[in-house]
Amino acid sequence: MAKIASIPVIDISGEGDQTQVAKDLVEAAIEHGFIYIKNLGKDIPVEAIEGAFEMSKKLFNAPLSEKRACTIRHNNRGWSAMQYETLDPGNQRVSHPLLLLITVVSLTDNPQTGDLKEAFNFGPFINSKAQQPLPPTLTGEDEAAIGAFRDLCEKLCLKLTTLLGLGLEVDPPDFFTSAHLTSPDRPSGTILRFLYYPPHEQLPAREAVDRAADVRAGAHSDYGSMTLLFRLRGQAGLEILGRDGKSWSPVPVVPPGTEEDPGPPVLLNIGDLLAYWTGGLLRSTVHRVVFAGGRDTEPRYSIAFFFHPWGGAELGVVPSQRVREFAERGDAKAEGNPYAERKVLTADEHLQMRLRASYAQLYKDKA
Ligand SMILES: O=C(O)CCC(=O)C(=O)O
Ligand SMILES: [Fe+2]
Predict the structure, then answer these.
(1) Which atom of ligand 1 is nearest to the CA of 304?
(2) What parts of the sequence cross the membrane (predicted)?
(3) Domain count of the chain?
């Protein structure tokens, strides 16, 4: 059996001087790229998380026609149907020989098995109103609750960017935080995403699953600065790739020492943009969601909050002694760390590049 991931648990709920917490957070971000944020209900009340999961179940249970009317667009908002997204296009197998044949003949479909999941992406809300179509099954009250949850996630991420800036001694220390402040003329790619992974038995025959070969979400790193991930007790499946680039380790929902907490810790992971900003010092760790065993007979729900800076933010290396020393040692370049050497992109350019790679159908007309 694979060894479970040894990811540190960090409590950010304390008052007063946060210097030590900030340093611990940075060390964890360097070493693992994944960190459990002990959730004592202070930054995000446990009821708000439970409420968000209720909204998610309601949304995915809505009639197909309602979800279809909200199909994801180039603005990355809306509903992504089963297999519409393929997070690891280079490796996800062709699902069925017949499908391959049809694909080759028609030359239109995406030949890979897409992720065996549905997703719904929420962009910004203005005065508790989503700026995108939502399934009518969701009431105005539901909509406001989702918007409020998104705000809580954003606030927690701003706190985390501030701690990372402090821990890395970036000059000025609020560099990351300021890059994430948005306004109507400084929009960002930030997305709140509900995810639904149907149980094995409910997959349509065409998507007949080979549990050993197919994944619920393909191997990927996240596109933004950082991601918050909310999961439900008993719903395993997330795995992270080790530094060897080969071994996968499961990431428990409830790590040792948090069993008695009011809710599971919030899982934080570093995304591509913080890796670029630090020349690969902070780790944007590859992860995936697999069929984990006996429990796959139940649906799995998770909620991700992908935090992005405003679109024009440049991803050049930040002024920080720690980052400079890391770059001068040259280890990252020597190891082929993809974040250590590249031309400077903006956050928007990077996002567009990643979306094109994951949504073959959506972008096929715009190749
Ligand atoms: O559902 C999960 O546990 C992880 C999802 C994920 O990695 C993603 O959507 O980027
Ligand atoms: Fe992810």
Answers:
(1) 9
(2) none
(3) 1
- Ligand closest to 238 (CA) is 1
Residues 87-111 have pLDDT tens digits of: 777 776 444 333 333 333 333 333 3
Ligand 1 atom closest to 216 (CA):
1
Domain encompassing residue 221? 9-366
List, for residues 227-279, the tens digit of each pLDDT value.
999 999 989 899 999 988 899 999 999 999 999 999 999 999 999 999 999 99
The arithmetic mean of pLDDT across residues 163-178, rounded, is 95
Residue 12 pLDDT > 90: yes
Ligand with the closest atom to the CA of 235: 1
Ligand 1 lined by 229 (C-beta under 6 Å) = yes
| Residue 253 Cβ < 6 Å to ligand 1 | no
Q: What is the CATH number of the domain that holds 253?
A: 2.60.120.330
ipTM above 0.90, yes or no: yes
**Atom of ligand 1 lying closest to residue 287 CA:** 7
Kindly state whether residue 55 falls inside one of the protein's structural domains. Answer: yes
Cβ of 215 less than 6 Å from ligand 1: no
Residue 313 lies in a domain: yes
Could you tell me if residue 3 is inside a domain?
A: no
Q: How many residues does the chain have?
A: 367
CB 193, CB 120: distance < 8 Å = yes
Alpha-carbon distances of 141 from 7, 94, 135, 145, 310, rounded to whole Å: 37, 42, 13, 6, 28
- Look at residue 2 and tell me if it is in a domain: no
| Residue 119 Cβ contacting ligand 1 at under 6 Å | no
Q: Which residues surround ligand 2, an ion (CB under 5 A)?
A: 222
